Amino acid sequence: MSTETYRQMQEYFMNRLRLMHYPVAIRYIFEQEELDRFKRDVPHYVPGKPLTFCQAEIGARMEGLTVLMEKDRLGCANAKFVFGWKGLDEAEIKSHMKYVRDMDQAEAFVRSKPRLPEGKLVAVVVSPLADAYAPPHVVHFYCDNMQAYHLAVDWMSAMNVHPLKPSMTMNSAACGGNVQAYNTDSMNIFLACSGSYNAGKTERGEINVAIPGEQLPLVMERLKKRVDDTGGAAITRLGHPFPGADICKNCPLITFKKAGADEAQA
């Protein structure tokens, strides 16, 4: 798929779903040759000092930057574990104690996280979808409730999958949630974790949506068909241009009165 096509997709999603953030194209690099070619041919940025993965995504979704994240620039042990850049150790287990009952549960929960094969990942690139240098493995949307709902409905229809089964871990939201989508080849919806909430700057209550990159064109086709058929993106009010329009045709009937008021007037 050409760069121009990715640019068109980004513009369409942002316009029709009223997105605030650029969709983030995530590319996992497993071959040194690809990394060398990327460094040589693609204009990009690197973290000035070690960052978390969700902080690297800030550059892509807010500033429109293509950011290369290598192991030595990833300053988050949880993400390193998810990316297969470190193994399970006591420090990793202890870092989860604030979430769980005891060490045994912490270890069990950490072991159950989605992971990339240990020692196989060379680097991760995040960029606005429009600037994807190669087919993204996952496209990560930071969006509100109804934007997430529209993406989910269109994905389920496009992929003929129902119900959608999201997967969420107690932390490692941005790193683990996208790895889950990659590993399962399925859309994922998940909340911010404590780290991505503050370090990753999701204070507006954004919901995370991760869609395998090769499936995104199918999702866009479903959205485009609804726009063509009804004139707008909204599912909640067909034909309305705003996704999640909440004008209920029964609003005049949704009224309340104090109990006993009629009897008192009589």
Task: Give a written overview of the molecule.
The mean pLDDT is 93. This protein has eleven helices and six strands. 39% of the residues are buried. Helix 7 (145-159) packs across helix 10. A six-stranded antiparallel beta sheet has the order 2-3-1-4-6-5, with helices on both faces. Helix content is 40%, strand content 12%. The chain is globular and about 70 Å long. With 266 residues, it is of the alpha+beta class.
In what range is the share of β-strand residues?
5-15%
Structural class: alpha+beta
Overall pLDDT confidence = 93
How many distinct beta strands? 6
The percent of residues in helical segments reads 25-40%
- Placed side by side, the strands forming the largest sheet appear as 2-3-1-4-6-5
Q: H/E order of the elements?
A: HEHHEHHHEEHHEHEHH
Low-confidence stretches: none
Beginning-to-end CA distance, first to last residue: 73 Å
Largest sheet: 6 strands, antiparallel
Form type = globular
C-alpha Rg (nearest Å):
21 Å
H/I helix tally: 11
